Amino acid sequence: MPVAPFQLYVWPHHLLILSPAFASARHRHHAAQIAFGLHGPVVFESPQTGPHRADMLLIPPDTLHAHPAFGASAFLYLEPESIEWVHFSGRGEGGIVPLPFNQRLRSVARRAAARDAVAARSLVDGLIGKSPRRGAHDDAVVSHACTLIRGSLDGPVTLAAVAEAVHLSPSRLAHRFREATGVPMRRYVLWCRLRAAAEAAMRGSSLTEAAHLAGFADSAHLSRTFRAMFGVAPSLLFKRGQAGVTFCETAART
């Protein structure tokens, strides 16, 4: 089976994209981004600080930037409200910054680009550090809450309603949910919606159908949200044959 040009690995609150060369105009996105080239340095441009060229670069959340088509690349997007981003050692003081780079990651990334999920997991561990994994499954109540959320994405999902369903106060559920998953519940819901829309689109649904299935008002709402989060339009990734997507359910880090 031929490997699609883009390979996506989606976890509960981070996204890994292995991509061919493509350029982007100036944009910003809410997710933090770690980028490196599979065969050489990456180049990003900032209107504040000019061009940045390094083996690996960090683009913090909501940072205006652009990049030329510099070759096949790995992009890891981190939920900015996640515990893993809060504790990420390379955050710096803001703006695009180079990160220490282990050359071994290039060979791992090339395996991930060939649709190797084990290599993708190893790559993420190499980029943000491997820590003891706890997840929603370690807390039966939060696990139940996650199941309820994933089954309710075609409509509104509120903390109050989920808390009532699992017999906790909203404040107590909010605390336990972040402890177990690493993100606030509202951000978990957003990532679940984006995952559901991606999965539907990859099964052949139109963007409008995928948007409705995932609880977005329409395809424009889905596209705005996806672009705001990741800086690219979903149509770039979800054209038939354009991307392979692996949904990874490994427990979140805390």
Tally of individual domains: 2
Q: How many distinct helices?
A: 10
Fourth-level CATH superfamily of the largest domain? Jelly Rolls
- Tell me the strand percentage band: 15-25%
Distance separating the two termini: 36 Å
Structural class by helix and strand composition: alpha+beta
At the third CATH level, what is the topology name of the largest domain? Jelly Rolls
Count the strands?
11
CATH architecture of the largest domain: Sandwich
In brief, what are we looking at here?
The protein has 254 residues and is an alpha+beta fold. It is 39% helix and 20% strand.
Task: Walk me through what this model shows.
This protein has 254 residues and is of the alpha+beta class. The protein folds into two domains: 6-128, Sandwich (Jelly Rolls); 136-230, Orthogonal Bundle (Arc Repressor Mutant, subunit A), CATH 1.10.10.60. Helix content is 39%, strand content 20%. It is built from ten helices and eleven strands. It has helices at 83-86, 104-113, 117-128, 140-150, 159-165, 170-181, 185-202, 207-213, 219-230, 234-238; strands at residues 6-10, 14-19, 24-27, 32-37, 42-46, 50-54, 56-59, 65-67, 73-78, 97-98, 243-247. Strand 5 (42-46) and strand 6 form a beta hairpin. The chain is globular and about 50 Å long. The model is unreliable at 250-254 (pLDDT under 50).
